[in-house]
Amino acid sequence: MKTVSIIGAGLVGSLLAIYLARRGYEVDVFESRSDCRVAGSDIGRSINLAMSCRGITGLSGAGILPIVKELMVPMRARAIHDEKGDVKYQAFGRHHDEYINAIQRTDLNKILLDEADKFPLIRWHFNTRLLHLDVSRKEANFIRSDGSQFTYAYQRVIGADGASSQVRTSLQQQGLVSTSREFISDGYKEIAISSASSNHLAREHLHLWPRDSLLLLGNPNLDNSVTGSLFLPLEGENSFSSLDNAPRIKAFFEKAFPDIAPMVPDVAGDFLNHPVGHMSTVKCAPWHHDDQCLLIGDAAHGLIPFFGQGMNSGFEDCRILNEFLDLYHDDWSRVMPAFYLARKPNTDAVSEMSTDNHNEIQMGIRNQRFNFKKQLEQHLMQRYPDRYVSKHVLVMFTNTNYATALAHGRLQSTLLDRICNQATQPADVDWLRVDELMHEYDKSLAQTHDQTETA
Ligand SMILES: Cc1cc2nc3c(=O)[nH]c(=O)nc-3n(C[C@H](O)[C@H](O)[C@H](O)COP(=O)(O)OP(=O)(O)OC[C@H]3O[C@@H](n4cnc5c(N)ncnc54)[C@H](O)[C@@H]3O)c2cc1C
User: Fold this and answer.
1) Phi then psi for 384, rounded to 5 degrees?
2) pLDDT in tens, 106-116
3) Closest residue (by CA) to atom 35 of ligand 1?
4) Of all atoms in ligand 1, which is nearest to the CA of residue 219?
């Protein structure tokens, strides 16, 4: 019998288990936490996620999109709330039907586990944490929540154990991969905005309250409530460490987010009760050892969350791994290196774009030139629909390689800068000159296309 062991029953591990069981593999999944369906939601980890095209395609390939779709809430535009309470809207897509979707992490994880349960070939081992992997002996050491330890002989193991992956650490300790993990100086916390009070927030939007070094994000839920994610520096003024008591927290909220403060009835309690999450970029090379051990999802390429692509790229990993298994008839000695070589340039590219987006959201979103560029992009996409497709559209609404999207984005940035040097609002744009610039853009695009499409 073909057997694969997966470490981690998070979003990627549980979707991967379904893909492999559909191919006839016996799958053992080891998860350090308890079963989230039995034990209730992950405390403080119920942050909402934005699901876009790659995530949807990944779910569809495993045959479970229709059931997951029922949990999704469309988000058609960013709603950017300024200090005075005014709101500006920026559409995500080119038309009304191009949108991303909010989904609750825990609800999604539960449904993935339920769908995986339909395959008798999948066996769960909850409350079982990997301590160490010994690849020379093909043995994994685990500890159960009752403190008992055991050794398990595996045939093939896939590390889907997230950004702090113990599989990756074990490979690194044995000198088989080189890795890096860089934390950013911001953390995040969940803030619940109740359904009754969030009624006046426009539905179907991703809400943003950008304030210099602070950012509050609001994702809509099915019940009309909004789950907020507050991003703050970990240290310094107005940081998670300085906001350490109720009066300070209340005063901070009333000053920074006066429109939202009345909608969070117990803002200090909410703030103090939720843990601070940390965010990092993970890089690793290679992602596999021979044909016996592979890393996937955040374990291989953790991203900071400012482009909403961590889960999406992880689900794309699952789909593409499955395609390589088709291509090489389940010969893992060919699948693992081919998968790594195909994915690595693309996950490096999305990592770079996530960092750029972080800077964009923090610095640019309230900047006039930045907003003009966003407007310009919409004009360009209407005027040259077959020629200008923005980097954001390529990332969110297509399965185009991330490396290709990044290359397009660089050329688009140059083009937008050249237009913005001559005009400050859409009415002032000399469109005949833009027609000329578009020819140069087309030529440069054709040159980069050949290089990146093969990645
Ligand atoms: C604030 C925030 C917002 C985000 N927003 C988005 C978004 O909008 N869109 C998007 O696409 N992505 C988003 N992400 C990223 C997304 O959450 C991750 O990319 C995704 O969860 C990765 O899935 P994973 O299964 O690889 O890892 P995880 O979800 O971290 O799952 C890993 C699993 O492995 C288990 N595990 C860990 N160590 C061990 C061990 N030693 N033994 C056994 N089990 C172990 C863990 O308990 C966990 O269940 C966001 C992330 C954050 C922090």
Assistant:
1) -125, 65
2) 999 999 999 99
3) 8
4) 8
Is there a contact between 45 and 347 (Cβ–Cβ < 8 Å)? no
Domain spans in the chain, listed from the N-terminal domain onward: 3-73+103-182+280-358, 184-278, 367-453
| Inter-residue contact 404 to 394 (CB < 8 Å) | yes
Ligand 1 center from residue 116 Cα (angstroms): 18
Distance 372 CA to ligand 1 centre (A): 35
pLDDT at 40: 59
Written as one letter, the residue type at 454 is T
Q: Please name the residues in contact with 295: beta carbons below 8 A apart, sequence gap of 6 or more.
A: 158, 159, 165, 167, 168, 171, 177, 284, 287, 288
Q: Is 268 in the pocket of ligand 1 (CB under 6 A)?
A: no
Helix (H) or strand (E) run with residue 261 in it: none
What does the alpha-carbon distance between residue 347 and residue 397 come to, in Å, rounded to a whole number?
Answer: 17
Q: Is 28 in the pocket of ligand 1 (CB under 6 A)?
A: no
Task: Say yes or no: CB of residue 314 within 6 Å of ligand 1.
Answer: yes
**74 in contact with ligand 1, CB cutoff 6 A:** no
Q: How many CB atoms lie within 10 A of CB 101?
A: 21
Max CA pair span of the chain = 73
CATH 3.30.420.10 for domain 3-73+103-182+280-358: no
- Bond prior to 286 in cis (omega within 30° of 0): yes
Q: Which ranges in 70-199 belong to alpha helices (H)?
A: 105-117, 166-173
Residue owning the nearest CA to atom 21 of ligand 1: 311
Asked if residue 41 has pLDDT above 60, the reply is no
Residue 255 burial (CB count, 10 A): 12
pLDDT in tens, 202-244: 788 999 998 888 899 999 998 888 889 999 999 998 999 999 9
3-state secondary structure of 353: helix
The pTM of the full predicted model, rounded to 2 decimals, is: 0.95
Rounded distance, CA 60 to CA 305, Å?
A: 23
The CA dihedral of 148, 151, 157, 159, to the nearest 10 degrees, is: 40
> Cα angle at 79 between 77 and 80, to 5 degrees?
135
Helix (H, G, I), strand (E, B) or coil at 267: helix
| Cα 161–Cα 26–Cα 105 angle in degrees, nearest 5 | 35
Q: What spacing in Å lies between the alpha carbon of 162 and ligand 1's midpoint?
A: 5
Å from CA of 11 to ligand 1 middle: 7
| Integer Cα distance of 55 and 37 in angstroms | 22
Q: Is 307 in the pocket of ligand 1 (CB under 6 A)?
A: no
